[in-house]
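Example for tutorial group B:
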């Protein structure tokens, strides 16, 4: 089959979960004999080759602004794709969903990954939020199939629009990196820091983690990996509020990202945005102990392999759990093993690619979505979601915890 991906910044992956997903599945589809094309934003991806890991690359321009970057580029991709005779086009991002109608003119099969409730993100203006919310029902009409990367999103679309979306989560690769150059540059020691990775935007809640960490009595450092291309004021507020043991690295990619992830004492997922968080899976794959916000989407990913903190009164409970894990290294070691086992069991990229290959085949054959959903579940069944671990009853406050030391 001829398959194309659009709606991302491009590959080689260096930015977000969508880019990693496309790179990991595209390269595997090529190995299985398919012709795969990925559309890159020429203003973002420095790599200018026509091919990467067997995947054909098409570089197109865009308007590099927060609100127009994605949709302008995807529009140009759709125009180009109309003349390429693709069997299937995969569009990332619900905001690009209206553009799927362009591809249907040529009777191309179109898939849209809606990526959670994007309209809830604080970074968007009121107009942008309204637009993104309107795009949700449009996606159910413009695409031949809608992908939900979490069961929370799948249920939401069923409840709101009566649509049977296809649940296919992200994957992750178990890996380690042995270098120490980055640690030395930032004055860090292996297993002596708590890690946060993400864009520095309000909905990722780095501010909550920074405030909670300042309440914890520990020799550990807090490392904030990420940046804020469109939220410089928020980023500065984080820097101003951090304590002396808080380290800001900016974005890290490639070996530097692998090094910082391979040596953490603990990883904290502070965000509560709906949908699978690829970075959460990735940190589990590095064998990190996970402390995550207790939301349905996050708990769906980690099952009983992580400790969680309350979504309400989050700063207080996060501080309590941080203090507990700082004081109980044996618990952290157990959580590391549990996280890695969870990834091996449920989230291999080969399994994810198996599902997508079957989806593309069935879609090309003209099967209705409900039949495709049944076929996927019969041939590549989803692992049952484990019961959420009961909240850990530790103490009433950080202050009480310290009193008992």
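The residue assignment follows.
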């Amino acid at each position: 089959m001829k398959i194309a991906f659009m709606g991302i910044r491009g590959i080689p992956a260096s930015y977000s979960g969508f880019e990693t997903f496309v790179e990991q599945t595209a390269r595997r589809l090529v190995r299985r004999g398919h012709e795969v094309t990925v559309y890159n934003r020429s203003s973002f991806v420095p790599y200018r080759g026509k091919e990467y890991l067997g995947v054909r690359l098409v570089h197109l321009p865009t308007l590099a602004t927060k609100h127009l970057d994605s949709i302008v580029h995807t529009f140009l991709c759709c125009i180009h794709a109309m003349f390429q005779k693709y069997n299937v086009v995969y569009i990332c991002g619900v905001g690009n969903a209206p553009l799927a109608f362009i591809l249907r003119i040529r009777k191309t099969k179109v898939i849209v990954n809606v990526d959670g409730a994007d309209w809830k993100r604080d970074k968007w203006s009121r107009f942008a939020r309204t637009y993104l919310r309107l795009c949700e029902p449009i996606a159910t009409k413009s695409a031949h199939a809608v992908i939900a990367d979490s069961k929370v999103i799948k249920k939401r679309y069923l409840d709101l629009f009566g649509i049977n979306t296809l649940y296919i989560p992200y994957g992750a690769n178990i890996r380690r990196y042995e270098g120490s150059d980055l640690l030395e540059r930032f004055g860090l020691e292996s297993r002596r820091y708590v890690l946060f990775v993400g864009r520095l935007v309000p909905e990722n809640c780095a501010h909550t983690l920074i405030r909670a960490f300042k309440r914890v009595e520990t020799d550990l450092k807090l490392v904030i990996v990420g940046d804020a291309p469109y939220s410089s004021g928020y980023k500065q507020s984080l820097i101003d509020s951090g304590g002396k043991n808080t380290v800001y690295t900016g974005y890290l990619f490639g070996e530097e990202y692998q090094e910082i992830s391979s040596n953490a004492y603990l990883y904290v997922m502070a965000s509560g945005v709906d949908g699978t968080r690829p970075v959460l899976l990735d940190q589990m794959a590095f064998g990190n102990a996970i402390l995550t916000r207790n939301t349905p989407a996050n708990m769906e990913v980690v099952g009983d392999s992580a400790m969680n903190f309350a979504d309400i009164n989050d700063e207080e409970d996060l501080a309590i759990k941080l203090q507990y894990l700082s004081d109980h290294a044996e618990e952290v070691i157990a959580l590391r093993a549990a996280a890695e086992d969870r990834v091996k069991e449920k989230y291999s990229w080969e399994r994810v690619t198996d599902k997508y290959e079957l989806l593309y085949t069935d879609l090309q054959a003209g099967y209705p979505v409900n039949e495709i959903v049944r076929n996927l579940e019969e041939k590549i069944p989803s692992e049952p979601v484990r019961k959420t671990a009961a909240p850990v009853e530790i103490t009433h406050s950080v202050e009480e915890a310290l009193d008992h030391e």
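The mean pLDDT is 90. Compare this with the pattern of hydrophobic and polar residues in the output above.
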